[in-house]
# Entry
Amino acid sequence: MNIASRVTRVLSIEGVAILGAFVLMVLYFSFSSDSFFVADSIRYYVNEAAPIFLITAGLTYVIIAGGIDLSIGAVLGLSAGTSLTFSMWGWPTWASALIGIATGLLFGVINAAIITFFKVNDFIVTLGTLNIAGGLLTVLTDHKQLVGTSDKNFMAIAGTMVFGVTTGIVIAILAVVVLEFALLQSSYGRRVYATGIGRLPAFISGIDVDKVKFQAYVISGGMAGLGGVVLAAHLNSVQSGLAGGYELTAIAGAVLGGVSLSGGRGSIWRAVVGALFLATLKQGLQLLGVDPLIYQIITGLCILIGVVLDRSVYNLALRISGRNLERNHQATTELSSV
Amino acid sequence: MDLVNAPQAILRMEGISKRYQAVQALDRVDLTIHSGEIHALLGGNGAGKSTLLRILSGLTNPDEGKIIFEGNEIAVNHPSRAQQLGISMIHQELSIIPDLTVLENIFLGQQRVLTKSQKWTPWINRRDLAKRVRDLTQTFGISENELWAPAAGLGSLKKRSIEIVKALVSDPKILILDEPTSGLEEHEKELLFEQMRTLQHRGVALVWVTHHLDEIFGLAAKATIMRDGKTVQEVSLEGLTVEKLIAFMFGSEAASLINKVETAHGAEEDQNQNSPVSLEVQGLSRQGVLKNISLKLHEGEILGIAGLAGAGRSELVRAIIGVDAIDSGTIQVGGVTRKINHPKKAYELGLAMIPEDRKILGILSEFSIEQNVTLAKLKKVTKLGFINRQREGKISDSFVAQLMIKTPNLKEKIRNLSGGNQQKVILSRCLNADPNILIFDEPTQGIDISSKIEVHKVIRNLAKNGKSIVVIASELNELIGLSDRVLVLREGALVGEITNIPAKVSKDGFAAIEREILHASSKVSS
Amino acid sequence: MSEFRSKVSIASTRNRALMDPSFGVVALLALVVIVMSIFQPSFKTSGNATNIINAMMTVSFLAIGMTVVLISGGIDLSVGSTMALTAGVAGKFISYGMNMYVAFIFALIVGALVGLVNGLLITKLAIPDFIATLAMLGIGQGIMLYWTQGVPILGYMSTPYYYIGGLRKILGPISIPMIVLVVVALVVSILLKKTNLGLYFYAVGSSSVSTRNAGVHVGRIKIWAYVISGLLAGIAGIHIAGRTTTIPPLIGNGYEISAIAAAVIGGASLLGGRGRVVGALIGALTLTLTRNIINIVGIASSWQAIVIGCVLIGAVLANRASEMFGKRISERTEKLNKRKVSA
# Structure
């Protein structure tokens, strides 16, 4: 009895499904391919994924607040471009990094201002800024590839090894931890959830919902900027179209992790696990020698299965835990009249 | 109860059970309805009435039990099946589709019944359909023009009329009415009751769910009483009093308690006019909605605001609290002129509003009770930007005790609570913000009698402790019983004031005040 | 009836035009066209006009389908890859020796099937529409990539197909795709305005709960919306295969975004319950016109994306402005009415 109720309690933690699926997948790949669970290969794809974790973390704020931000991929690319460019021009590392982050913040502010001030649809606006940011990157790189800053320090932003992981990953982990802590424990985080659950009741309760959304978009932009700096430092080259499609991975990852697109539900660690799942999937398939032409099919199927499973596990856990509650003679909850 | 000679029941629900995860919503419930009968379905919140109706109207399926309709066992899998059988429902929550026109709302899903055609054509002939519903819509005050207007822009009164027409248009065999009189004025209620009698004489079976026990006498012959998901009893309403009915619904202890409280109308007599003015409004206007309204609110006073639906009552208080913008006018809080353009500012100045329609405007459904309670003043539980969960728990605990909120624990999501308890949580949220002025917009909407009494007690206590209260209530009994003074609005303008309502109002005095309010509220007929 | 008519005319034609949701965009378009015609003589030519109309065909088909889905409260991110897939089906089957028209039918069936799968994923498995159609986008693209092994499809063109694809005109500037578009637009328009199914689309998008209460099978309606979207993607696929004469596997890339943008510019709401076929066409025209102007004015292609982004944002702002303007007009008209009635 005790074990059963413990198990159900664990199962009913939201996001457990994706974590479980992730672990299973890792186990599968580890056994199927010798080169999977090797430190180098893990490091490789996790490094690649660091920028995605950063934008996923920022995106989660926006989604929980009830919005969406499609521009994060393009803004990440542009920020990578601006920071690398300044580094190539000989600016000190910290200045170049700041420029990159500022690029992201600028777009965050633009999104925030247009969406909250004019009350227009966020899908279209962020689609617009996606195009603008992408276009600016094309202009910046002038269809060429920006290569190579000689500034070793800049590359060190993402390249230095710390406790066996690169600084890029450390930055990502730090950002995720900080943002998650803020989301779950701070009063701002509470306001974000409130805005996403019900804009009207939150407003009537005295929450400045516009301000909350504004700040969420700025955070999202800032994370895209930071991600751009990390990516530029990691690749040491930038070209037009960089990070295109990253936003879809971030969104898919968030949804896989149980973040609801209608707002008010989810958390960052789950979104990041979802994004990690997708990144690991790609890596595992590659190492297994699966035909790259069917990656997308497998990824698509995994997304579908993942979403269904996540909900099913949660519902199952609720049903089991519900029966346990009844047996423990908990007071009956009155139903609201629907 | 003479069932032996009664005609065969058109509907029999037997042994219906339904479980939602941890909660047994219905436990072997029985319900028997005859044609040509008005049958009341009564019970407090959480009794299971709504769940039973959901099953009958096809929105959900029972776990166990039988439904026997016209002698045949059936399963109502989907609302379309209910419609096919001739079961129509007037929902408590407005089931209006905003982007469709009024006409489209009325005939949606019912084209075949309306046109009485056996062949199914894909085409819609709107003019034809308009003709067919003309009589019914005129009876309920929907004009020809309004048929073609989008339903979104209409007031809640019109929307309810649309609901009613929609249910009647298909000539149902069983009509379910879930709180049909909420938001209706007296003469509209009479109209509805008339229609109900007509339908009854035509042989339609009516299942009537209502919290207004006084309304059912003289109209319903029988009542089925539910409590905690079980059928308590089926009673004949002949010779029954409200007290006896309440005893069936809540137990005899509750009945005597309710009786005592009801007669103890607003205890002491306060000459509120001499207390300091806590809130003053001058010349408040908003184009098309509010016309130059001025009022004064005193400490310790309960000010009632009366008027027909659409008169501007909610709009007035929403403007005061900063939810809606105003075109002109000033507001003084505690003697100082302030600009209130956001509810946040209102809370900071010591105002708080318990909104109408808690489901849409009040509760944050996914949040727990604690999280709902602290939302309006997060400062109280925030230290260095982070939320102190223990403080949150302590604060919520004290409110749960103070307002007697029924819940297994504080972490329960608010949407699992009954309407009455949800309202108490919202009230806690407002009280937690330490307001001096509280505005209640329909504080007991959709709440059962025992919770209603509790809420009234709280309001009176608040006034006794020096808070200034504004109450909007459509039910004049409630309004007059609570208020020290009543302002009457009509079409956005202040048209009357009734002062010095005594603490204990006699029956005649009551009727006189009621008449005065109704006279001022209604349009002067030309 | 007559009193109804007189009341309607109070909202005069002028006011009704102002209150039209697409007014803002159309006004902007008209302005741009006038400015362009003055400053760039090459814009005014009939050759350029036909260019524009030809270029907007593909997006128009997709935008009409997207509008239907948006009206019903959903979204379809898979239309681009479905278009590519159906183009591939048409091209490949023809090159296998199948009769062209039969191949077309297969292409349409594939399109409708993809729509059906989308609909089922969303209604039966309760997968959010964004995710379900996103996954289908990937799966569709993956199938296309694998099937073609990355190699563009060739060798399926024939003389009739040149006509069907619009590369050869049949009467002056008029081509078959134009006729098809007009027919499709009319059919879908009539479907939305005059049939039960059309009404159900609006109802479901506006409030699926209330619609279900009214006895409508909401799930079925949603599935139909996605099937229509898939079908139109199939038409677009047949068209684009004929127009470009080769089918690279990723030919559909980005078209779903254009379709959504066109539908929204034309007044469809991402929340559901609103939208018109005419709006879809206006939106498609806006996007195509933008690209056309960029080319004529000679803006470097690197700036194209930036301009398109600005156009998107500008268009929704214009719509919002006309919406608020329209509200003010209707309020004023109401006041006028009230005065007239009480006089």
Remarks:
- Confidence is low (pLDDT under 50) at residues 324-338 of chain A.
- The interface with chain B takes residues 185-188, 190-191, 193-194, 197-198, 200-208, 264-265, 318-319, 321-323, 325-326, 330-338 of chain A (CB under 8 Å).
- Strands of chain A lie at 145-147, 161-162, 165-166, 237-239.
